[in-house]
Amino acid sequence: MLQSYEIGALPLINRILERIRLPQFFEAYLPPDDVRCEFPTSKALLVLVQNVLISREPVYAVAEWAARFAPDLFDLRPQQVSLLHDDRLGRCLTKLFTGTGPELILAVVRHVIAEFQISLDELHNDSTTVTFFGAYQEASEEGHRLGRATHAITWGHNKDHRPDLKQLLYTLTVSHDGGVPVYFTSHSGNVVDDKTHCATWDLLCQLVGGPDFLYVADCKLASRENLRYIARTGRFVTVMPRTHGEDKTFRKRLRQSPQAIRWEPLYEVTDEQGQVTDRLFVCADESLSSDGYRLLWYRSTRKAELDQTTRARRVQRALAALTELRERLLSPRTRFRERGKVQQTVDDLLTHYEVESLVRVSIEEREDVKYRQAQPGRPSEHTKYKKETRPRYHLTWELDVAAFADAEREDGIFPLLTNDRQLTAEEVLRAYKRQPIIEKRFSQLKTDFHVAPVYLKDVGRIQGLLAIYFFVLLVQTLLERELRHAMARKGMASLPLYPEGRPCSRPTTARVIEVFEPIQRHSLIFGDNEPQFLVTELTALQCEIITLLGLSPADYGR
């Protein structure tokens, strides 16, 4: 008898899961299973984590997916795999919803910090939206279920640019040391970002054991309430929004007397070939915000190029839209018969493309004259005609050269706020420049792991599934971090992970899973003899990755 199973990268993932001790934390913090339960909740949830990492199947297809793999990789008996049906997994997600509070998340992360020696001296926070396709009428308002609050799946500021769809808000905090997720929470879809920071700060203080860390976030942090709350005990770095008066004052000064502002060089950014791609400067005159925080202005040559390109693209699109509008106005069937309506359309167009100060549009009113017979009948030399006039509007525009010059002076500049008096201007900038690491986690959440669409209707189970995604992000980040640290310890600059053996200096979990996908295990049984196990022969690259992650190639998949 021959049995064949897939192995893939599951042993590597299981190695990280063993070190995280996720099943033990599930058993400690989730409601206890009924004594009649034939399948532990902790094991079912672990299968969901493994599934999202490897394949991301809908809940109803997990059993079919798991049947392709060797049962021992899930710590299951062969007859238990068929029990992974959608009803059982749904009930397990409900249990995870009732048990996923700050206590469970903090307990897991504290263990991870100690096990993997993760630095918490700088934490980055941001949020994204999880978009939902469907009505979700039962989750239209916030409520309570099983003693826990449920979110409202509703409309809000959608960061996937889908304002027509409902959403939930997903807030994540990562460390700068490898971008390891250290805390997450979810909110109703209509919750604004700036209302989440104070509660997140308190929980991070519990995690770290005090406020001795640098909290970095985007401009939503820069409300007076948030900054005062954090500044009482801790330190922050954020970007100042354009709506603040200090921003307008500095930009006005820059337009009127740019030579009076002194820029001091900080550092240069180079690519792999050693070519300079960006030069960073700081304004020599450091100032204070209206609330007394340090306000530092920076200038980036790379950002200046991007600002110029973006402005040119906006102007080009605005002119194309104006051309189209002018053709509509000239059409004999045009509905623009009132000057106010034309003016409003032009204003909305310029505002949409953010070129109000760059393009000046003139609206010229002309008379459209037509002659009609005064009376019906066949026209003759005695037929009388009456003159009808209707207003018609014509657009002309020109680019404001002075406004373009002013805009070019502002290219590449941005302000940062901090209450840390000890950090240098370069240290403040480098801390904020590490903020995109959290955007990478959101990208993985929505591309590698396909957080949407969500094949669930119950909002409690959906909140439980979002917790699963946090643990998935945690596992994949730790696997990447362990592999990269092992490469650094051995002095390896890259691995030939890309097609054709091309080098990869920063291996990702997705690529590692892809490399290990062909590995299978075959069990061959002759009569009553002991089974013989045959595992796909490993390549040199696979053996090297296995060794780097602390496993034995000889035992892999057996």
Task: For the structure shown, list the relevant keywords.
3-stranded antiparallel sheet; 558 residues; 22% strand; 19 strands; 40% helix; 18 helices
Q: What order do the helices and strands come in, and which of them pair?
A:
Blueprint: E1 2-6, H1 10-20, H2 22-29, H3 41-54, H4 62-66, H5 78-81, H6 86-99, H7 102-116, E2 122-132, E3 143-145, E4 148-150, E5 166-175, E6 181-188, H8 197-208, E7 214-216, H9 224-231, E8 235-239, H10 245-256, E9 263-270, E10 276-283, E11 287-288, E12 294-300, H11 301-330, H12 339-352, E13 359-373, E14 385-399, H13 401-410, E15 413-418, H14 425-433, H15 436-446, H16 459-489, E16 495-498, E17 502-504, H17 509-516, E18 520-524, E19 532-535, H18 540-548
Parallel strand pairs: 2-7, 7-8
Antiparallel strand pairs: 1-18, 2-5, 3-4, 5-6, 8-15, 9-10, 10-12, 11-12, 12-15, 13-14, 16-17, 18-19
Helix pairs in contact: 1-16, 2-3, 2-7, 3-6, 3-16, 6-16, 7-8, 10-13
Describe the 3D structure.
It is a single chain. With 558 residues, the protein is an alpha+beta fold. 40% of the residues lie in helices and 22% in strands. The strands form five sheets. Strands 2, 5, 6, 7, 8, 9, 10, 11, 12 and 15 form a ten-stranded mixed β-sheet that branches. Helix 6 (86-99) crosses helix 16 (459-489) and helix 10 packs across helix 13 (401-410). The protein is globular and about 115 Å long. The model has no long low-confidence stretch (mean pLDDT 92).
